[in-house]
Specification:
CATH architecture: 3-Layer(aba) Sandwich
Structural class: alpha/beta
CATH class: Alpha Beta
Radius of gyration: 16 Å
Order of helices and strands: EEEEHEEEHHEEHHEEHHEEEH
Number of strands: 14
Number of helices: 8
Strand order of the largest sheet: 6-8-5-1-9-10-14-13
Largest sheet: 8 strands, mixed
Number of domains: 1
Strand content: 15-25%
CATH superfamily: Class I glutamine amidotransferase (GATase) domain
Distance between the termini: 13 Å
CATH topology: Rossmann fold
Helix content: 25-40%
């Protein structure tokens, strides 16, 4: 049975408001894994209870959070303690938190490189791909260089009125490191796959990222 490592943020706020992981991006992707009997563990830089927002955004999310087994997984282990060889894929859910604590995190880079090196799936959705933007391979090149990717767009940030609150724009970070950034209209479901990388543009794309991840793991 396949086992997926989920790496989420420990950063709890944005502009003074509660933040962290946008819960529907976690629940909708993991629901797909649950449907296919694929197990997963959730870790974060600091460990402990996962800071989140959007906990009541939709019925699926509320239902999963009411399940004690799933809720227990939200009390996370520390990312530094992870042995990536024990997992078959890695998944980064979005939310603004990771822009602050996962983009330059050495342990996150170590883990992502490990999966990429063995051509195992490296999946991310919405702001999640930002955690991959600065990962360097052993030869010093950016992991995303020359790769087709997507993620939360400038237009979507403008619509959310967050440009003044975030430390950088994901779209710019990807292109600065040589990625081929692909996007569709605001809030459109959009999944991009290139080699080991699976990226989704926005929250609506979370289930699609989960489905693409399952397809890789079960092929």
């Amino acid at each position: 049975m396949s086992n997926v490592l989920v790496i989420a943020s420990s950063h709890p706020e944005l502009g003074g408001e509660p933040n962290g992981t946008y819960m529907p991006e976690l629940t909708h992707a993991l629901h797909v894994l649950d449907e296919h009997k694929i197990s997963y563990d959730i870790v974060s830089p600091k460990g402990g209870r996962l800071p989140s927002y959007g906990d009541d955004a939709d019925e699926l999310t509320k239902t999963m959070l009411a399940d004690s087994a799933f809720a227990g997984k939200l009390v996370t282990k520390k990312l530094a303690d992870v042995d990536p060889s024990q997992y078959d894929a890695v998944f980064y859910p979005g939310g603004y938190g990771l822009l602050f604590d996962l983009v330059d995190n050495a342990d996150s880079h170590r883990v992502a490189k490990s999966f990429f090196a063995r051509n195992a799936p490296v999946a991310a959705v919405c702001h999640g791909p930002a955690a991959l933007s600065r990962v360097e391979l052993d030869d010093g090149t950016a992991m995303v260089k020359g790769r087709d990717v997507t993620g939360f767009t400038r237009g979507e940030e403008v619509a959310m009125d967050t440009l003044e609150k975030i430390p950088f724009l994901l779209e710019d970070a990807m292109t600065e490191h040589g990625a081929v950034y692909r996007k569709m209209s605001n809030w459109a479901v959009h999944i991009v796959e290139d080699g080991p990388l699976i990226t989704g543009q926005n929250p609506a794309s979370a289930a699609g990222v989960g489905q693409a991840l399952v397809a890789r793991l079960t092929s």
